[in-house]
Amino acid sequence: MATFTPSSSGVLPPMLSSRAPHLSYCPPPLVKVSKMPPVMATSSTSAKPGDEMLAENKGAEVPAAPKPPKRPVYSMKKGQIVSVDKEKYLNSINYLSVGHPPYYKGLDYIYEDRGEVLDIRIFETGEHALVAWVGIPTAPAWLPTDMLVKTDKLDYERI
Q1: Least confident segment among 39-53, 88-102, 133-147
Q2: For residues 117 and 112, which has the higher predicted lDDT (pLDDT)?
Q3: Which of 35, 42, 74, 150 is exposed most, by the fewest CB atoms within 10 A?
Q4: Which residues, other chains included, contact 147 with Cβ-Cβ below 8 Å and sequence gap of 6+?
């Protein structure tokens, strides 16, 4: 049995001599870092337009941090039981964009069944609520809050 040693032959086998291009090492580029001299606000000889404001504000009080924006006040709260006002919904862009025929019966559950508000947000078009219907295997829908009617409990009988 012959053994291979690098000194016995001047050539390496192909699997040891070739390198995969994606495994080759490429050093990161060198970046030259220079220190900038500190800016002196008190020197009047090298006055810049912004230095005058620094000198004036030096003696003044530091302004307080800006107050965080107030939380919006919503017309409903999460967990509220709602139903949809049928007349408002049939005349809304939400209904017209779906393309159902007039008085489509497949959406009666949103008027008759109870829906629960999962989330409320204010969008560019107004305040909307994410409503999921209890016991109906359908996805929740974002609806404008002006077409929702708050209810404590809806008493109805399923047919």
Answers
A1: 39-53
A2: 117
A3: 35
A4: 84, 85, 88, 89, 92
The answer to whether residues 127 and 144 touch, using CB atoms and an 8 Å cutoff, is yes
SS (H, E, C) the chain: CCCCCCCCCCCCCHHHHCCCHHHCCCCCCCCCCCCCCCCCCCCCCCCCCCHHHHHHHHHCCCCCCCCCCCCCCCCCCCCCEEEECHHHHHCCHHHHHHCCCCCCHHHCHHHHCCEEEEEEEEECCEEEEEEEECCCCCCCEEEEHHHEEECCCCCCCCC
Q: Can you give the pLDDT at residue 146?
A: 93
Residue reference for tokens 């862009």: 93
